[in-house]
Design goal:
By secondary structure, the chain is an alpha+beta fold. The chain has a domain of about 200 residues. About 45% of the residues lie in helices and about 30% in strands. The strands form two sheets. It has an eleven-stranded antiparallel beta sheet with strand order 1-2-3-4-5-6-9-10-11-12-13.
C-alpha cells in the first residue's frame, strides 16, 4: 500500500462532511457536487505511470543491447561494403528508440504527477469539508438562538466564499488533467514527427490511425461523463430521490490486436434503498466475434453486497484457430450504513444525513488460458474506512499448465507492505 491508498478515505470523509453541512449552508450542496465530479483513482494512475517508466527502462536496455551486439562484430569478421549501411540503419533505429524512451518517460511522469494532484485535491477537500462542518455547527447554533442569530448570514457568506475557492481548486485539478492529456496527445504527435524524420516512414500514418481509433473511446467517455455529471447535479438538488439510474459507464476501445470492446453498464437504485449494477461488452476483431463479458452486483440498504464478472476472449475468432482465455471474479462486502434519517416524524420522509462508514471486502479473481493451460488465481481481503482501504491482504497462486505452481502474498498496512512467497514464478527465472 502507498499514500494513494488513503485517497478514497479522504474523499469519502470530505463527502460526509459536506453532506452534513449542506443542510445548514446551501453553498455546501455545490461544493459536495464539485467533490463528486472530481473523484479519480490515483492508485491506478500510479500503477500505470510506473508501467510507462518500466517500459522506458526496457527501451534503454534494448538500445544498450543492440549497440553492444553491433560493436561485438569485429571488422575482421565483417568487412563487406554493406556493414556501414547496416550500422547506419542501427543508429537510425536507436535514435527512434531514444525518442520513444523520452515519450514513455514523459507519460509516466505526467500520470504520477496527476495522481499526486488528485491526492493534493483530496487533502484540500478534507480540510474544506472539516471547515464547512464546523461552520455549519456555528450556523445551526445561531439559528437555534444559542448565539446571535445574525451570525447565520455571515456563515452563509463564508460558505459562498468557500464555494469560490473550491471552484478554483477544481479548475486547477482540471488543468492538471489537461496537462497530462497534452503530454499524451502532443507528445505522441511530436514523437511520430521526430521518428518520421529519423527514417520511420510509418510513424505518421500509425499516429493518424491511432487518433481515428481513439476518437470512438473519447466519444464514449465524453458521453458517460456528461450523463454522470447531470445525474450527480440532479441528485444533489433532489437529495438523491427519484433517480433510479445514478451512474452509467460507456466503453468503446480497441487494443493492439485490432479487437474492439464495446458496451457499457449502469448503476440502478431500487425503491427499497438497494443498488443493482450490471453491464456487458461485446468483443469484435478482424476475425469476427472475439468474445465478451458480463458483470453484475447487488448491494442492500443494510450494507451487504455481492458482485461477480466473467470475460471470455478469443482474438482469432470464436471457433477459429487457437483456444481463447477466460477471466473471472467474485466478491462480497459489508459496510455500515452511510447515513441516518433525521426528522420526518417516523414517516421515512426525513433528511438523510451522511455518517462515517466502516466495512470489509473479500474477493477472488483469476484467469486461465485454454491453449497453454497457464493461469493465476488471486484472493484478497480488506478493512475499510469511508470507502478506502486501511488494511489489505492478498494471496496469489500461479500455475504454468505443466504441473508447476508458485505462491505469493502481501499484507498492506498504512506503515508499508509485508510480502511473502515468490512474486516471480520459478519457471520464469
Amino acid at each position: 500500500m502507498t499514500a494513494f491508498n488513503s485517497y478514497d478515505t479522504l474523499m469519502g470523509t470530505a463527502d460526509i462532511e459536506t453532506g452534513i453541512a449542506q443542510f445548514i449552508l446551501p453553498p455546501a450542496v455545490w461544493i459536495k457536487l464539485q467533490f463528486t465530479l472530481s473523484k479519480g483513482n490515483p492508485v491506478n494512475l500510479e500503477k500505470a505511470g510506473q508501467a510507462w517508466m518500466d517500459a522506458a527502462q526496457s527501451v534503454e536496455q534494448t538500445k544498450t543491447l543492440l549497440q553492444q551486439r553491433v560493436a561485438a562484430i569485429s571488422p575482421q569478421d565483417w568487412t563487406a561494403d554493406d556493414r556501414p549501411g547496416y550500422e547506419q540503419k542501427v543508429q537510425e533505429f536507436v535514435a527512434q528508440l531514444d525518442i520513444l524512451q523520452t515519450y514513455f518517460q514523459a507519460v509516466g511522469i505526467a500520470l504520477i504527477s496527476y495522481a499526486w494532484a488528485l491526492m493534493v485535491y483530496a487533502i484540500f477537500a478534507v480540510a474544506m469539508g472539516t471547515f464547512l462542518a464546523a461552520l455549519a455547527a456555528v450556523a445551526a447554533a445561531a439559528l437555534a438562538g444559542i448565539i446571535t442569530a445574525e451570525i447565520t448570514a455571515a456563515c452563509e457568506a463564508i460558505a459562498a466564499t468557500c464555494l469560490t475557492v473550491t471552484l478554483v481548486a477544481t479548475g486547477v485539478l482540471a488543468m492538471a488533467a489537461q496537462l497530462a492529456a497534452m503530454v499524451f496527445q502532443g507528445g505522441s504527435l511530436l514523437a511520430a514527427v521526430a521518428e518520421s524524420g529519423k527514417g520511420n516512414d510509418q510513424a505518421l500514418s500509425d499516429f493518424m490511425t491511432a487518433q481515428a481509433t481513439g476518437s470512438a473511446a473519447a466519444l464514449a467517455n465524453l458521453g458517460q461523463n456528461a450523463i454522470n455529471g447531470g445525474l450527480a447535479a440532479a441528485g444533489s438538488r433532489g437529495g438523491g430521490r427519484g433517480l433510479p439510474v445514478s451512474k452509467v459507464d460507456l466503453d468503446a476501445d480497441r487494443n493492439a490486436n485490432h479487437t474492439w470492446n464495446i458496451g457499457g453498464g449502469a448503476t440502478v437504485k431500487t425503491g427499497a434503498g438497494n443498488e443493482i449494477t450490471g453491464g456487458g461488452h461485446v468483443k469484435w476483431g478482424d476475425h469476427g466475434l472475439a468474445g465478451g463479458d458480463l458483470s453484475g452486483g447487488f448491494k442492500s440498504s443494510t450494507g451487504l453486497g455481492v458482485n461477480g464478472n466473467v470475460e471470455y476472449t478469443d482474438e482469432d475468432g470464436i471457433g477459429q484457430g487457437d483456444h481463447g482465455s477466460v477471466k473471472y471474479g467474485a466478491g462480497a462486502s459489508v459496510e455500515t450504513p452511510g447515513s441516518v434519517s433525521v426528522g420526518g416524524n417516523g414517516t421515512g420522509n426525513g433528511q438523510s444525513v451522511p455518517i462515517p462508514t466502516v466495512g470489509g471486502k473479500v474477493g477472488i479473481e483469476g484467469n486461465h488460458d485454454f491453449e497453454t493451460g497457464e493461469g493465476k488465481v488471486s484472493g484478497s481481503a480488506s478493512g475499510q474506512l469511508n470507502g478506502g482501504d486501511v488494511v489489505k491482504g492478498t494471496g496469489n497462486v500461479n500455475y504454468d499448465g505443466q504441473g508447476h505452481t508458485s505462491t505469493s502474498g502481501t499484507l498492506g498496512l498504512p506503515t508499508g507492505d509485508i510480502k511473502a512467497g515468490d512474486e516471480t514464478p520459478p519457471w520464469d527465472k
